[in-house]
Specification:
single chain; about 600 residues; alpha/beta; 9-stranded mixed β-sheet; about 30% helix; binds guanosine-5'-triphosphate; binds sulfopyruvate; binds manganese (II) ion
Length: about 600
């Protein structure tokens, strides 16, 4: 039975029902009984496997199709009326053409299946910053994952009331045909249509599709920003908390930084890190002229491989209950394992494809983009105010990417405009989070290349305009944890030790430390990166010393000169939509580099 009298919602559900022709329609009220019944049903069909409830209470296992394991950027479209509004960095399809093509694919796609109606809220229920969506889907995995990743059910429809302000999300697995897989966004119609996939980023429509692509478009109209950013609070020994947001491309360390545990040296002094969000931030200008951030999500869709008691104990702890694991190793006693969890791979287990797996085979048991879907409230370091409807005020924004060379450990922009330039030239080596070749360097402005729902030139302009409206803007930094030495080893130990860089950033925000001015911005003085009590690493017996700090902070102008031509080529595509401020910043950087 319908759970609302909202005519627009009813009309949307009815229209899609006519098209996809499901056997029946079930409205998700969000009750424990209803969700429990769905879990049981999914287990009876094999869509889910119930895990060892003693070791992993409330946890389930799922496998996606073998050719359906990551976001499909080449099949993701922004279907704005005018091509120029999608911009050169997005795939575009005319809305009429996209609707017609998709209707063909959706026709009778749910025959013999159930269509679930999932009302969901991005952001805490009742926050003025929250936004509503309704996702229709024929996948129980999607319903249960949406329950973890967003707030769902009757309370969302009550919040929506009779408003038309909701995103219409349609998803069908169809036949999981990779040739007919499309993720279509119609920003002007508040509509997302996804078909022939069952992988998270393509089908959990609240996440990248809504909270970034649609929301970035809405933010441009309404004067706010939707960003691919983690949010953390850094508590200093006096109890003061400094909030920082950070944008890194997919699989470049957001979840890890969001749940960072400071080195013992800092912990003893009383420093703590609190998680507010690990992937998406919605940013608004407060009455105080500061930038305020909320995390619109309710859970973590985290990368499993590499997550261990050593690298990220808080993430691992978050997965111990009420979690859905996708494409990891399934052990004999119905628990889970993945590469990098420990040095003890299980014998007699099944790999992510469901085949018997031999750890000595040289083949990974988990897919490199295997994921866990865990409730945020499971996280031991979740901030007590993480659901505060007004959000948290940002003191700093950090950009970063995966760069084997070039980018120093950390540098600070001169001002907001220069910071927007720094964000616009983020470049990173591609990862397994999206289909396609990994390890290819690409320019990924603001870590938003696959997620900006409109012309990126206009998006840069919007960032510049936001800065003008902020009387107390966050300071903007760039970091790179991934620099390699000539032998291909990470120079910087990363993970918890990243706190040493965060500490410098916080001290910069508080005006407690000065910096060196270089061609690319401000860099720390070598003595100001605290390496007290740092462990040995990489080269056995060689301690990370002041020379190593100096090397990793170095700006390397030769390399920077190499990055300029690709940046220029990237910028050139935007023609008159490229803000002149950014063209000017690029020119200034070039001039400074030739002077050093
Ligand atoms: P998405 O969920 O795809 O957006 O990824 P993410 O940005 O949250 O990245 P995540 O924190 O899951 O880390 C991705 C990979 O980078 C994992 O394999 C981590 O182990 C690795 N990683 C994270 N932080 C560091 C670091 O400081 N140094 C090094 N060397 N690797 C890191
Ligand atoms: C990413 O790829 O940036 C993710 C996972 O966070 S997904 O939801 O698939 O986009
Ligand atoms: Mn992400």
């Amino acid at each position: 039975m319908a759970l609302t009298t909202n005519k627009m919602v009813l009309h949307f559900v009815d229209e899609m029902k006519q098209l996809a022709n499901p056997n029946n329609v079930i409205w998700i009220d969000g009750s424990h009984e209803q969700l429990e019944a769905l879990r049981q049903e999914a287990c009876s069909t094999g869509e889910l496997i119930k895990l060892n409830q003693e070791k992993l209470p409330g946890c389930y296992y799922h496998r996606s199709a073998i050719d359906d394991v990551a976001r499909v950027e080449d099949r993701t479209f922004i279907c704005s009326k005018n091509e120029i509004d999608a911009g050169p960095s997005n795939n575009w399809m005319a809305p009429e053409k996209a609707y017609a093509m998709a209707k063909d694919i959706y026709k009778d796609a749910m025959k013999g299946r159930t269509m679930y109606v999932v009302p969901f809220s991005m952001g805490p229920i009742g926050s003025p910053f929250s936004k509503v969506g309704v996702e229709l889907t024929d996948s129980i995995y999607v319903v249960l994952s949406m329950d973890i990743m967003t707030r769902i059910g009757q309370r969302v429809l009550d919040m929506l009331d009779d408003s038309n302000d909701f995103v219409r999300g349609m998803h069908s697995k169809c036949a999981l045909d990779a040739q007919k897989r499309y993720i279509l966004h119609f920003p002007e119609d508040n509509t997302i249509w996804s078909m022939n996939s069952g992988y998270g980023g393509n089908v959990l429509l609240g996440k990248k599709c809504f909270a970034l692509r649609m929301a970035s478009f809405q933010g441009k109209q309404e004067g706010w920003l939707a960003e691919h950013m983690l949010i953390i609070g850094i508590e200093s020994p006096d109890g003061e908390v400094t909030y920082i947001a950070g944008a890194f491309p997919s699989q470049c360390g957001k979840t890890n930084l969001a749940m960072l545990i400071p080195p013992e040296y800092y912990r003893k002094k009383g420093y703590k890190v609190w998680t507010v969000g690990d992937d998406i931030a919605w940013l608004r200008i407060g009455d105080d002229g500061r930038l305020w951030a909320i995390n619109p999500e309710n859970g973590f869709f985290g990368v499993a491989p590499g997550t261990s008691m050593k690298s990220n104990p808080n993430a691992l702890e978050s997965t111990k209950k009420n979690t859905i694991f996708t494409n990891v190793v399934l052990t004999k006693d119905n628990t889970v394992w993945w590469e990098g969890m420990d040095d003890n791979p299980p014998r007699g287990a099944l790999d992510w494809k469901g085949n018997p797996w031999d750890p000595d085979s040289g083949e990974p048991g988990a897919h490199p983009n295997a994921r866990f879907t865990s409730p945020a409230k499971n996280c031991p370091c979740i901030a007590s105010n993480w659901e505060d409807p007004k959000g948290v005020p940002l003191s700093a924004i950090i950009f970063g990417g995966r760069r084997a060379k070039v980018a120093p450990l950390v540098y600070q922009s001169r001002d907001w405009q220069h910071g927007v330039f720094v964000g616009s030239i983020v470049a990173s080596e591609t990862t397994a989070a999206a289909t396609g070749k990994t390890g290819v360097l690409r320019i990924d402005p603001f870590a938003m290349l696959p997620f900006c729902g409109y012309n990126m030139g206009d998006y840069w302009q919007h960032w510049l305009d936001m800065g003008k409206a902020l009387s107390n803007p966050p300071k903007i930094f760039n970091v790179n944890w991934f620099r390699l030495d000539d032998g291909g080893n990470f120079i910087w130990p990363g993970f918890g030790d990243n706190f040493r860089v965060i500490d410098w950033i916080v001290r910069r925000c508080k005006g407690e430390v000065d910096a060196r001015e270089t061609a690319i911005g401000y860099t720390p003085r070598t003595k100001d990166i605290n390496i007290e009590d740092m462990e040995y690493y990489i080269h056995p017996g060689r301690r990370f010393n002041i020379d190593a700090v100096r090397a990793i902070l170095s700006v390397g102008s030769v390399y920077w000169k190499e990055i300029l031509p690709p940046v220029k080529a990237f910028y050139a595509q935007f023609e008159d939509r490229l803000p002149k401020e950014l063209a000017e910043e690029l020119l200034q950087l070039e001039l400074r580099l030739w002077l050093v």
